[in-house]
Amino acid sequence: MGNNKVKSPHVLIFPLPLQGPVNCMLKLAELLAINGLHVTFLNTDYIQNCLLKHTHVQSRFENYPGFRFETIPDGLHQHHPRTADKFVDITNGIEEVMRPLFIEMLTNGNLSSKSTKPVSFIISDGFYSFAADLAKDAGIPLVYFPTISPCAQWAFFCLPRLIDLAEVPFKEEDYDRKVSGVPGAENFLRQRDLPSYFRNTDLNHPIIQCILKEIQQIPRSQGLILNSSELIDGPMISQISTLCPNIYNIGPLHSLHKSILLSTQKASSHINSSNSLWEDDKSCMTWLDAQPQKSVIYISIGSLAVMTVDQLKELWHGIVNSGKRFLWALRPGSIAGEDDKYAIPPELSEATKERGCIVSWVFQEEVLAHPAIGLFLTHSGWNSTLESLVEGVPMICWPYFVDQQVNSRLVQEVWRVGIDLKDSCDRVTFEKAVREIMEDKKDEFESSASKIAKLAHQSVADQGGSARYNFNRLVEDIREMTQ
Ligand code: UDP
């Protein structure tokens, strides 16, 4: 042993316990494992159970001898809804339960230098600001991976400046005022387009405090992974690089993942495997096969957002009144106060039967890639946005929280691939937006969507793609930093 021991890097990946970050980081984990690195993926018990129940992650990752899952409790009751309206419970659980257990695991437990396979590199969600001190004390290199959009991350970094300029918190009468405190975004960001928590009048709100901590810690790490590319988000990425010079732009990550898997014999059979926390409904793919090209609106508000019964009705009426076909992934628990039941408004039931397909959860990447999809009505989560950009599908954006208010503005004003309906919810507006994208300005939207899709594909190309280059650089740097 001793001097002859060849150090093989052991990367700990620690995502936020939510569908989007877990999906994203599992893809990164698989790419690192394909490159021969040892990887420990730290999930909460809840997330791990959902994955084991609804996906093939177990058998899929058994292909990589250096890969293992570890779990940690999230401090919430098993039946806690873990939805956006209860986000503070999730963050309290992180602070009070996960944080101390994680510290123990890394200092004395089965990830520590006292264990048989100590962790030698950490990739952590940007939200875990405590990881920076811990990694420093343990002498382990750390790279942060905030899985939100670069523009929203940049707005987070600008929060102290926005507070100084009195642009945060802001009042409703200022919603349409342009923001000057986010350099590089002065032309398109209004106050209502800032991250949702910036609307809060209480700067002591726990999430605001978390963001202020996070932005101090991220620049102390060895690097920052972003799920985007210079071709899509160049100006925002260069702003962030003034604070964090070592950025790995590996996005769109789901597309990079797909293209690397396709070229890897051992892994190519996993290409159609999802990382869903709910059961993917496959019957909707057969339904889609029977629909004409670009004729269907796909509707989903992601894994966390909730809506009221009134909002549900407005949306439903708007979609039905547009006369278009629709596939709706209506997640269990996404209607506030309604448990898993929702009533089809009787006046809509015939049209819904005729033109609609309603399921609980779909394998979204596969749905968006289907030729029948012509429009995505989305809550503008960053993963959903990227998945739509890659497939060249125009969007109607109806943002709920965190970075979604920012993303929906980018979709409309910067990439011009959709309509931002933030802060409104009425049937007439929904119908009008559908008609504008699928009828009146169809060619315009399709052409800008296909332009952005080309840039996304260029970013992950195996020859000259920036995501490929940055991913390879990340692997080399991990090897170098752990020697
Ligand atoms: N998703 C899915 N099926 C659905 C709805 C969502 O597979 O029916 C996936 C989607 O592909 C994306 C993730 O769930 O990767 C949601 O992440 P996003 O960042 O868009 O939003 P969040 O759920 O975090 O608000």
From TrEMBL:
SUPFAM superfamilies reported in the protein's UniProt record: UDP-Glycosyltransferase/glycogen phosphorylase
The UniProt keywords, alphabetically, are: Glycosyltransferase, Isoprene biosynthesis, Transferase
The first-level EC class reads transferase
Q: Which superkingdom?
A: Eukaryota
Give the GO molecular function terms: quercetin 3-O-glucosyltransferase activity; quercetin 7-O-glucosyltransferase activity
The answer to whether the entry has keyword Glycosyltransferase is yes
| Annotated Pfam families | UDPGT
Q: Which Gene3D superfamilies match?
A: Glycogen Phosphorylase B
Question: Which biological process terms from the Gene Ontology are attached to this UniProt entry?
Answer: isoprenoid biosynthetic process
Q: Key word Glycosyltransferase present in the record?
A: yes
Q: Which InterPro entries match?
A: UDP_glucos_trans (IPR002213), UDP_glycos_trans_CS (IPR035595)
EC number of the protein = 2.4.1.-
Pathway(s) this gene product operates in, as recorded in its UniProt entry: Secondary metabolite biosynthesis; terpenoid biosynthesis
Protein family (similarity comment): Belongs to the UDP-glycosyltransferase family.
Recorded protein name is Glycosyltransferase
Q: Which organism is it from?
A: Daucus carota subsp. sativus
